[in-house]
Predict the 3D structure of the following.
Amino acid sequence: NNQKTSLTEKRISIDAYTKEHGIENIDFIKIDTDGHDYEVLLGAEQTLKRSVLGAAIEVPFHGPAHPHANVFCNIDRFMRECGFSLYVLDSYPCSKGALPAQFTYKLPAQTTKGQLLWGDAVYFRDGGDPSYSSKWDFTFDTARLHKLCCFFEIMGLGDCAAEILVRLRDTTEHKKEYTMLLDLLVRGFAQTALSYDNYIQAFDADPTRLYPK
């Protein structure tokens, strides 16, 4: 391969890009820049606060101890200050060269054992909190709540999606439709043929039924 790689010196923030192109709403942001994720977040602050429902970010666990280092503690603080909560954290170990462990994949990267070095964090707004809008300058309309339910289900967070659907079922006229969605949701999340209401009733009657077998 004789092709030469050239790197651009031009940099643009997400906030500047959305403003330049007239983009008002972004639902989800995924950031994986191998070392500059916190800087990307700083350049997306207005976009995050305006419309974003969730974000997936690569997070290093180690680095300099100053407030602008690209490390998990700073990223987590920034996201919480923007109104987001941590929902998923996948962490990856890497063994020391003094005693190498088995690689997780067929490439020299993370290993099955060793010190945690980095991870993937997923943040969402808490659409199930009835007082969320009073805490943060962000309004959930029905469309945004539906999108958030979809994101939760995609990430395996069916319980978080159910929390929103129950709230919608109890406060709107579409009880039949939301009941149907809850029934579909519980089948995938709990691997049961029970309806949502019957599943909750069974749990309330005997929570030990969900103990490990």
Notes: The chain has nine helices and four strands.
